[in-house]
Write a structure and sequence with these properties.
By secondary structure, the chain is of the alpha/beta class. It is built from ten helices and eleven strands. Strand 4, helix 7 (133-139) and strand 5 (144-149) form a beta-alpha-beta unit.
Length: 290
């Protein structure tokens, strides 16, 4: 072993020791013990991202979606497809959903409350409990079952991380809500998880305007692309500070790193994540075409 390799190996081991210790402290201080998730009653489920390609998938494979429990995310409730498909699970991760009064956020939550006429599980981070926002509107619609999960990021040795993942005390870094959705699908008990609408093509629409602000044209499947304009890329719905170019690529690197960690965990749980998105930049999962 060369000196450089020995240095990297030793450095990696020390880093994992420190990260594991920090993660254990976070679990003790932040995580709520005894969290239980609903149990899967079928072998497979479908996770729906809101990328533009989902529209094409819904048109091509309508029957397939009707045959599986569905997991949706973020603002899926504002679409016509929400009441047509009646997803069994809804995952929210972004803290703007319990901290912001942005009209888009409020309309999403109102749509969930008003439209959900079937039994559905709403997954939200434990840290949102202090706001009582989700408890209040779920109390007005008994079809919605509120499920808190521990979003406590574990970094360190994989074997220790996987133990706390299984206990629902920690999670891989979920820089994107789809990471959390796939993780929860595994822990609910699904062994085959199909992923759609995970385009992740954001980098193709980046632009720095004349004011040196980073701008983004972010399109969802329920929007007409030609009507979407480039807008300043703010760090949150309740924040008016835009990302720097270096910051956003670091952030997106965490997204794809999270998928890699998640795929490793899925393999340990004898689960399979299959990326059936028409377009996708995710390379961590096996790609399939229905």
């Amino acid at each position: 072993m060369t000196v450089e390799k020995k240095y990297k190996s030793t450095s990696s081991f020390i880093s994992k020791c420190i990260n594991t210790l920090v993660s254990l402290v976070k679990i003790i201080l932040i995580s709520k013990f005894g969290k239980k998730l609903p149990k899967a009653t079928t072998e497979s489920c479908v996770v729906l991202g809101n990328g533009p390609s989902l529209k094409q998938s819904l048109e091509k494979h309508a029957d397939f979606f009707k045959q599986h429990p569905l997991v949706c995310v973020n603002s899926f409730s504002v679409t016509e497809e929400y009441t047509m498909l009646k997803p069994l699970y809804y995952v929210i991760l972004d803290y703007s959903f319990w901290k912001s009064d942005d009209k888009h956020i409020l309309s999403t939550l109102e749509a969930i409350k008003q439209k959900t006429t079937w039994e559905m599980y709403l997954f939200v981070p434990q840290m949102s409990a202090s706001s009582k926002r989700f408890e209040k509107f779920c109390a007005e619609n008994k079809n919605i079952k509120l499920c808190y999960f521990n979003y406590t990021v574990f970094k360190g040795f994989d074997s220790i991380a996987n133990y706390f993942y299984r206990k629902n005390l920690a999670m891989p870094q979920s820089q994107n809500v789809l990471v959390a959705s796939l993780f929860l699908s595994i822990n609910v008990g699904y062994k085959k998880i199909y992923l759609f609408g995970a385009d992740h093509t954001w980098h193709q629409t980046l632009l720095v305007n004349e004011q040196n602000e980073l701008c983004l044209k972010q399109v969802h499947f329920y929007e007409q692309e030609e009507k979407i304009n480039l807008v300043p890329f703010y760090k949150g719905a309740h924040l008016k500070e835009t990302f720097r170019m270096d910051e956003i690529f670091v952030t997106w690197a965490k997204v794809f790193w999270g998928y890699l960690m998640l795929n490793n965990y899925a393999n340990k749980q004898n689960a399979k994540i299959l990326n059936a998105s028409e377009i996708s930049f995710i390379d961590a999962f096996e790609r399939i075409k229905l």
